[in-house]
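--- STAGE predict ---
source: upstream dedup step, 1 unique chain passed
mode: sequence only
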Amino acid sequence: MKMYQVDAFSHQLFKGNPAAVLLLDHWLDDDLMQNIALENNLSETSFAKKNDDQNYEIRWFSPVKEVQFCGYGTLATSFVIFNNNPQINSLIFHVKGMGNFFVENLSNGQISLNFPAQVPQKLAQVPELLKKALNSEIVEVYENPQAYIAVYKDTAAILAENPNFNLIKELGGKRVAITAFNEQKEGFLKDYDIISRYFTPSMGIDEDPVTGSLHTSLMPLWADKTGKKELTAYQASSRGGVLYCRLLENNRVQIKGKCKLYMEAVLNIKI
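--- STAGE serialize ---
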């Protein structure tokens, strides 16, 4: 069984978010897929079942459980399919509970992902446990189906944050994002509009390096605040990753990014 490992949302190796990708003709047993993801110990392992050349079903597993939506895993999977099938320039992923994801292979080396937006809702009060888990002052907090999204006053606070992961684990499975608008445009952040980080200990990884699904919430949040429908985002993990985001009509978000292939492997598994 062949497996690929791809650095997603990066144009260079050892940056972005490493994803494992397996392309299937039929679904494997759920326990086997979970064990493969645990063995890989990456943020996500993606499994895509081919329906025809341009239509796939896709599922994602963290080291501890299956997840509903993984943007960077979708990007990595698209990259592998396009590499293996250079005659194909578009794909549709059919996702249980999420509808269709539309993908295009662009001429500039980027891959365009068209996702449903997850518009976050502002909370009237900041949860006390969230305040304790984070060290910086929270300006306001939003919530989407997966996470709390804490808005910070500036990018320096984002970079300096050292959260209490044990307390985040007590948030009922909720992940925690922190974000700020990049007013200064200085130093290595000078090319980016919005900065974020994403803490995910409930998924078996303390900090997710780069998260496409999160930006389906960050884009409508910051578009509403700034009036801008196109923003360049940087997820400021230790690996870092760049996402080119655009708010579309019909409650959709476009996210573009690049990938680098790190590894091709053969799994010693008999099915």
